[in-house]
Design a protein that fits this description.
The chain is mainly α and about 200 residues long. About 75% of the residues lie in helices and about 0% in strands. The protein folds into 2 domains: about 70 residues, no CATH class; about 110 residues, no CATH class.
C-alpha cells in the first residue's frame, strides 16, 4: 500500500467528489477494522487527500461550486402560497378571513346541510329556516371572536346578499322550484360561507 499515492490507496480518482472520498474511507475502515496498520494507512491516505484538495482549492485549481463559495447568494426558499396571499391581501381582509379548523368546518357544514335538507323537503318552512340560519351564523361567528355586534352584522349582510342573489337568480336558475325555496337555499349557502370562512 505504501508505494501507491493516497488516491490509489483509497481507491478513488483525483477528480472524485468529497462524498466519494468519504465513502471510500468509511468502506476501507470497516474492511480493515481488525488490521490496525492498514486502518492507520487508510487514515493517513485520507488526510493526505484532504490536504491535497485544500491546497488545490486554495490555488484555484479546483472549481468550488457557487453555492459553497457564496452561500449568501443562494436562492431564498420559495414562500408557500398562503404566505403570498397574506402578503398581497390588505390588512382588513386578513382580519376578516378565517382558516377554519376541521372541527369548526364539520360543525357548520353539518348544521347547514340539515337546514338545506329541511328547506328542500318542507318548502313552507323556508322563513323559519332562514331565521334559524341567521341565529346559527351569528352564534358560530360570535364563538370565534366573542364580538356579538360584528357577528350580527356579518349575519345580516349574508342574509341580505343571499336573499338578493336568490331573488335575482331564481327566475333564471330555479325552474320548477318555488322562488322562496331557492332564495332560502342561496341564503343558507352564504350563511355557511360566512360562518366557516369569516371571523
Amino acid at each position: 500500500m505504501s508505494e501507491q499515492n493516497p488516491y490509489e490507496q483509497l481507491g478513488v480518482t483525483e477528480d472524485a467528489s468529497f462524498e466519494e472520498i468519504q465513502e471510500a474511507k468509511t468502506r476501507l475502515t470497516k474492511e480493515y477494522e481488525n488490521d490496525q496498520r492498514r486502518k492507520e494507512a487508510v487514515e493517513e491516505a485520507y488526510d493526505a487527500v484532504i490536504m491535497d484538495r485544500l491546497r488545490l482549492r486554495q490555488e484555484g485549481k479546483i472549481k468550488v461550486p457557487e453555492r459553497i463559495r457564496f452561500p449568501e447568494r443562494s436562492k431564498p426558499p420559495k414562500p408557500n402560497p398562503q404566505q403570498i396571499n397574506q402578503a398581497s391581501s390588505p390588512a382588513w381582509l386578513q382580519r376578516l378571513l378565517d382558516t377554519p379548523s376541521r372541527n369548526d368546518l364539520l360543525i357548520s357544514s353539518g348544521l347547514f346541510v340539515l337546514f338545506v335538507a329541511i328547506t328542500l323537503f318542507y318548502s313552507s318552512s323556508a322563513s323559519l329556516i332562514l331565521a334559524l340560519g341567521f341565529a346559527a351564523t351569528a352564534y358560530l361567528l360570535n364563538r370565534k371572536e366573542n364580538r356579538l355586534g360584528r357577528a350580527l352584522l356579518i349575519s345580516l349582510a349574508s342574509l341580505l346578499i343571499g336573499v338578493g342573489l336568490g331573488a335575482l337568480l331564481a327566475p333564471i336558475v330555479a325552474s320548477g322550484m318555488p322562488s322562496e325555496q331557492f332564495t332560502a337555499l342561496s341564503s343558507l349557502f352564504l350563511f355557511w360561507l360566512a360562518s366557516s370562512f369569516l371571523r
